[in-house]
Amino acid sequence: MQFRTQIPISKSNNPIDYNSKVLSIGSCFAENMAEKFDYFKFQNETNPFGIIFNPVSIEKLFDRVSKQELFGEKDVFFHNERWHSYEVHSDLSNSDRQELLETLNKAITETYKQIKEATHIIITFGTSWIYRNIEKDEIVANCHKVPQKQFAKELLSVEVIQKSIQNTIGAIQTLNPNINFIFTISPVRHIKDGFVENQLSKSHLFTALHQVLKTYNSKFITHNYFPSYEIMMDELRDYRFYNEDMLHPNQIAIDYIWKLFSESHISENSFSIMKEVDEIQKSLRHRSFNPESDQHKKFLANLQQKMKNVEEKWPHIVF
């Protein structure tokens, strides 16, 4: 007897394995999944420009990367004793302008290289709500706590989002026409926008994204939509699966969504390696009551051998 509904998920035709190179971009949920990739020692890069929530800002960055258009002094500004760029997250902000520009331009060149080499790219959209800088008449990725009066809040239309996603795909494919796209909508609700407004925002993302997938699906290499939002809202509809803020998925939910992602988008041949890596990771976290005991020394020697065996088979893995 089933006491919950389960979301059907199609298996990827080109799943991720330990030879794959994955780039993850987007909202904070992209970071949750990237932590899992890191834990299991896949070749993964995440949010080189920090967390980005809206599709237009993601498009703008990929356009800049594809053209290798470096950041200049006109692209940064000083506020609250730090230099910022409206195109990236505040995690990259710096008290020194030149250091910020060097960080941003290093991210441009490295992301260019990563896209050229990547086998898979995962893009997670978070919201359709954007803030437009009134003076520059430009959509920003982050307001950096600049006074709100300098921005106009807008809801992106389905048409604008659809065009933005198409442009993002185009910019990436100019660098790597064989890359596999995986899209998802973040299950995190943006309640600060309002409950009704959050639903409206997500609905615009869904409509635009699925219209793009319907139109362009034959050009992609894999089945490319993962229903993380649907899993959270339906299979995990109980608040015991949320953090204390009742908005972000907790570790149980993240683990469950990762499990479903693994089953659908990771090669079955990789499962045995993932199990080995998991055992090593758990052993590395083990704390002995008696570090000087013969038993613990044998445990460490055995662990070192396991690590050596995995690292010899997969040179990119380093514990």
UniProtKB/TrEMBL annotation:
One family name in Pfam for this protein: GSCFA
GO terms of molecular function: hydrolase activity
Family annotation (Gene3D superfamilies): SGNH hydrolase
Keyword tags: Hydrolase
Domain of life: Bacteria
Catalytic activity, EC: 3.1.-.-
Domain GSCFA: 21-261
Protein name: GSCFA domain-containing protein
Species of provenance: Flavobacterium ginsenosidimutans
Taxon lineage: Bacteria, Pseudomonadati, Bacteroidota, Flavobacteriia, Flavobacteriales
